[in-house]
Amino acid sequence: MRASCRRSRSLSGLAVVATSVLFGSLVLLPVVAVANTLPLVLVSPPRRRRGAIVVGVLTILVPFALEQLGVLPTRYVFADGAITILPFLASYTPLPTTAFLVFSNVALVVTACFFVARFRDAQLAAEERVILHAWQLRQMTPTAAHEAMPSVHPPSGPHCVLRT
């Protein structure tokens, strides 16, 4: 893996870890970790995906472990059946905190969905090109050769995006 790719993955992981100062390692950070890790896994070659997943998991586990070991202040208090998130950098006033949590979570879901949709659109376009090329090659081969070769038919059904 190129050094610039490793640096990029490490820096994006550190940026995700930095979100733990807002609400700890168990609120918001896991969603940000998924939104950061998913694109890395989608665009990485198979041999590099494990590293992207490890970085994604560590972005959650490292801040959690540091909180548990006392290196970072405890962020969660469990008492009387409730969980309280303690402030670290800023105080939590109801309206701005709620607005931030709603907006950031919705924005992360929308961003991840747009990324996956673009990736899927590119995949479908590539599949359509392969099917078209196979059809064109079949048109150029002699009819006798068609019987000797197995036929390749595009998928069909209501889920199929190809129009036949």
Summarize the structure.
The chain is mostly helical and 164 residues long.
Please tell me how large the radius of gyration is: 24 Å
Tell me the strand percentage band.
Answer: under 5%
Distance from N terminus to C terminus (CA atoms, Å) equals 42 Å
* Strand tally: 2
Helix count?
A: 6
Judging from the principal axes of the Cα atoms, what is the shape?
Answer: elongated
Element string (H = helix, E = strand): HHHHEEHH
Share of residues in helices: 55-70%
- Could you say which structural class the secondary elements and strand pairing correspond to? mainly alpha
Question: What do you see in this structure?
Answer:
This protein is mostly helical and 164 residues long. The chain has two domains: 1-90; 93-164. It has six helices and two strands; from the N terminus they run ααααββαα. It has helices at 3-18, 20-23, 29-43, 46-68, 94-140, 143-148; strands at 76-79, 82-85. Strands 1-2 form a two-stranded antiparallel sheet. The longest helix has 47 residues, at 94-140. The model has no long low-confidence stretch (mean pLDDT 83).
